[in-house]
């Protein structure tokens, strides 16, 4: 498949829509509070019954209901959505923070399920599954040569906790088949990618979404980093589409002093609910920086807004997405669910950062794409802000509402000499596929290398850069990598490090030349 690079911002917008859909600010809700009582609701139910019982042709009334629900919700706001049963389990699992399975990252390579990595301490790792192994059969079901969809593969590998699955695996390095009996277990889905020290006193924590376990993960990383000497903290919320607002609030509580207002919500009846920080914070002093960009949304904006409005830290990056609506998720008996917007949230100074959605969902989500065109991602002066939406923090700083969090320190989108299309490409799945295929040819060339030896080996050659150029020409049109060579090589090295070592090794490489972090460390 050929992809024209000029459309990459559009692809990113699509990915963002999916991320925001999964990661809205959520609260729990009791569906029994909604009872069918008035005549309009009764009429809708009666119509479905008429069609089901009397219509001349056989119809799937379930699909009619689903379409009706979608049509109704489309009249509301872009974040009030219906989730069919086929998607609800995956969405809920993603937000739960773990799942039951065998614990592997895999890649369907030439119609075969190839293992990229076994998750550390997971069922497969304990059983002895190795990177490069091919899963041929699961409980006797053939998995290779069938072009099975990903959800079918997941069905074969997932199951109840403690249940067993018998895998027949081809180990390429030994040229033989091996049978493994694996007991399925709980496998974590990390929402905190990494916590590490940037230097002797500055810690860095990357949060990819706000799931049920995010605060616990954050707290664990923060404790470890403080024990390593952290006096300053950088929290990276770039490309974080949000999630459970309670998790963002709990993290804000670790950063803010007692009785600081974190956020407040207001519903249609005018009820205001305020949430304040408590005495328990573990990082209420020390320099604090929050990194955001145009894809930081919802719960990410709650956290960034709380820090900014309380004069607690510095917001660095580009204007955030602009989602200030709160959803509650209500389950139906058939396994589907609806997420309904039930309130707006406001930052401590009283700002609503919700951007307009009167022109419909399509225009709403494409607004991020428009920021590429109007120059906002390159020049802070291109940000359009209404003077009527100015607010003041306790120390008198001016902050703005009406469409995202405007950073205190603006950092344009730039990756040295790379354009944004190349930069986004480096963070896409296609690079991971390339690296897997290279490792699969001969893993032994990296065997027993220390991380330092690995870096020296990679930096001493252009071999993989040249191979990636050839690889990418088969999949993507119009991108010339030579002008971005240093960036491309860095991301290639990082992906190799992730697959050979771990997530921390990946970030150890990519963060060294990160433009926003350079701004933070220089500011210090």
Automatic annotation (TrEMBL):
Does the keyword field hold Hydrolase? yes
Stretches of the chain forming a coiled coil according to its record: none
Spell out where the chain crosses the membrane.
7-29
Keywords per UniProt: Hydrolase, Membrane, Protease, Serine protease, Transmembrane, Transmembrane helix
* Cross-referenced InterPro entries: ClpP/crotonase-like_dom_sf, PDZ, PDZ_sf, Peptidase_S41A, Tail-specific_protease
Record flagged with keyword Cell division: no
Annotated SMART domains = PDZ, TSPc
A Pfam family that the UniProt record links to this protein: Peptidase_S41
**Do you know which Gene3D superfamilies this protein is assigned to?**
2-enoyl-CoA Hydratase, Chain A, domain 1 (3.90.226.10), 2.30.42.10, 3.30.750.44
What are the residue boundaries of the PDZ domain, all occurrences included? 88-173
Q: Which family does it belong to?
A: Belongs to the peptidase S41A family.
The UniProt entry, under NCBIfam families, shows: prc
The protein, known as = S41 family peptidase
